[in-house]
């Protein structure tokens, strides 16, 4: 226990308990360590990272620096780039921005106050926000690649590429808007069979905007890779370099907030019609809009060095299917819960669905329940 006290002196980030099995000798120590923004070191003074079934030491300075970037302890956006400051200070993007935000500010003075100029050299954040072509100074670190694959296969390949991959460049503000517009235009050109023949399919524009904006704003810019948007016949995949930072996990991503690139998030929000609201609700909006249209929620997968969000154009199960699936794992269901899992908004609509399912012999009312507490169970 002394090791726990040394590593977690305040007791935060760790929970432990002793478990006993009746009829068996001894105790089992169960330890639960939460994901934290800090880099924790073992008893030997070295931090370790998990790779498969092995724990690898991080004892080289460059490897430790990469781990700090990945965890969000430090941000690559603060790194100083050895180029002339006028790449940013004389930029028309910065002039328009200052005219909108602080009309009388001197560009270099303002940049220095914002810590975007350090010793007369721009930071990565300054270039990404205000340089006309940050990709020329930071090649392979801040572009967006857009691909259209004419397939539903799990992986895209050269033979099904509709045309050459497109590269979207420019400052972050313009890049996000252009990437969203091009993605929407590409998806709307994909025909799909509907009730009256071939028709256009529309992904919710708010969903595409929020997921693409998140991928560009919150990526790890220390990784020499672009953001990749892959458009398939039945889905869109948005790949953002870098793992989830700090304590953010896939399971808790809609509840947690952490900005890896704090300066970019803060200043981008000051642009006219900003692509981010800086209130941590972007992904929640993306999920809600899919649900409103009766579409499956986006899937988020964290890989070794990136995060991939998959947006499928697949409808949710029918209300009846969703209710029966819920009842496979639960003894009963009420109106409110049923509306929550089926995207049915009105109470009377759900009552009609329950009535049809009763008539079909699929469910029955739980005896003793009535009015607002009426519950239904599978009919055996």
Number of helices, where a helix is a run of at least 4 consecutive DSSP H or I residues: 14
The CATH C-level name of the largest domain is: Alpha Beta
Order of the strands making up the biggest sheet? 8-7-11-12-14-13
Structural class: alpha+beta
Detail the poorly predicted runs.
none
| Strand-residue proportion | 15-25%
CATH architecture of the largest domain: 2-Layer Sandwich
Number of domains: 4
Shape: globular
Rounded radius of gyration (Å): 26 Å
At the third CATH level, what is the topology name of the largest domain?
Heat Shock Protein 90
Helix content: 25-40%
Q: What kind of sheet is the major sheet?
A: 6 strands, mixed
> Mean pLDDT across all residues, rounded?
88
- Give the total of beta strands: 17
Give the termini separation: 52 Å
Brief digest:
The protein is of the alpha+beta class and 380 residues long. Helix content is 34%, strand content 19%. It has 4 domains: 2-69, no CATH class; 75-139, no CATH class; 140-312, Heat Shock Protein 90; 319-378, Winged helix-like DNA-binding domain superfamily/Winged helix DNA-binding domain (Arc Repressor Mutant, subunit A, Orthogonal Bundle), CATH 1.10.10.
Task: Identify the notable features of this structure and list them briefly.
380 residues; alpha+beta; Heat Shock Protein 90; 3-stranded antiparallel sheet; 34% helix; globular
Walkthrough of the structure:
The protein is of the alpha+beta class and 380 residues long. The chain folds into 4 domains: 2-69, no CATH class; 75-139, no CATH class; 140-312, Heat Shock Protein 90 (2-Layer Sandwich), CATH 3.30.565; 319-378, Winged helix-like DNA-binding domain superfamily/Winged helix DNA-binding domain (Arc Repressor Mutant, subunit A, Orthogonal Bundle), CATH 1.10.10. Helix content is 34%, strand content 19%. The chain is built from 14 helices and 17 strands. The chain has helices at residues 2-7, 61-71, 86-89, 92-101, 107-113, 124-130, 134-137, 172-188, 205-217, 262-268, 282-292, 319-329, 335-342, 347-359, and strands at 14-19, 28-33, 48-51, 54-57, 117-118, 121-122, 144-148, 166-168, 191-194, 197-200, 227-231, 235-241, 299-302, 306-312, 333-334, 363-365, 375-378. A 6-stranded mixed β-sheet has the order 8-7-11-12-14-13, covered by helices on one side. A 3-stranded antiparallel β-sheet has the order 15-17-16. It has a two-stranded antiparallel ribbon with strand order 1-2. Helix 6 (124-130) packs parallel to helix 10 (262-268). The protein is globular. The protein starts with a helix and ends with a strand. The mean pLDDT is 88.
């Amino acid at each position: 226990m002394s090791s726990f006290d040394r590593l977690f002196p305040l007791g935060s980030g760790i929970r432990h308990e002793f478990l006993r099995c009746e009829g068996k000798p001894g105790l089992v120590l169960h330890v639960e360590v939460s994901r934290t923004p800090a880099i924790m070191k073992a008893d030997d003074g070295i931090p370790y990272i998990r790779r498969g079934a092995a724990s690898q030491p991080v004892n080289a300075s460059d490897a430790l620096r990469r781990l700090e970037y990945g965890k969000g302890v430090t941000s690559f956006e603060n790194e100083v780039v050895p180029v002339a400051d006028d790449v940013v200070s004389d930029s028309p993007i910065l002039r328009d921005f200052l005219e909108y935000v602080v009309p009388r500010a001197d560009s270099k003075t303002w940049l220095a106050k914002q810590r975007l100029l350090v010793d007369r050299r721009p930071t990565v954040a300054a270039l990404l926000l205000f340089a006309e072509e940050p990709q020329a100074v930071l090649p392979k670190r801040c572009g967006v690649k857009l691909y259209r694959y004419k397939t539903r296969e799990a992986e895209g390949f050269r033979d099904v590429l509709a045309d050459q991959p497109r590269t979207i460049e420019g400052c972050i503000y313009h890049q996000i808007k252009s990437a969203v517009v091009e993605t929407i235009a590409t998806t709307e050109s994909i025909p799909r069979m509907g009730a009256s023949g071939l028709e256009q399919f529309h992904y919710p524009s708010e969903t595409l905007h929020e997921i693409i904006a998140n991928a560009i704003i919150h990526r790890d810019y220390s990784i020499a890779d672009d953001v990749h948007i892959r458009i398939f016949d039945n889905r869109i995949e948005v790949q953002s370099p870098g793992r989830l930072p700090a304590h953010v996990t896939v399971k808790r991503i809609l509840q947690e907030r952490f900005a890896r690139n704090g300066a970019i998030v803060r200043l981008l929000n000051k642009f006219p019609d900003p692509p981010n609201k800086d209130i941590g609700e972007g992904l929640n909006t993306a999920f809600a809009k899919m649900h409103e249209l009766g579409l499956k929620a986006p899937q988020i997968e964290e890989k070794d060095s990136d995060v991939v969000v998959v947006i499928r154009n697949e409808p949710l199960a029918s209300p009846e299917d969703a209710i029966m699936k819920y009842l496979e794992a639960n003894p009963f269901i009420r109106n409110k819960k049923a509306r929550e899992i089926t995207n049915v908004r009105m109470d009377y609509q759900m009552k009609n669905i329950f009535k049809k399912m009763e008539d079909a012999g699929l469910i029955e009312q739980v005896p003793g329940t009535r009015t607002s507490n009426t519950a239904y169970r599978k009919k055996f």
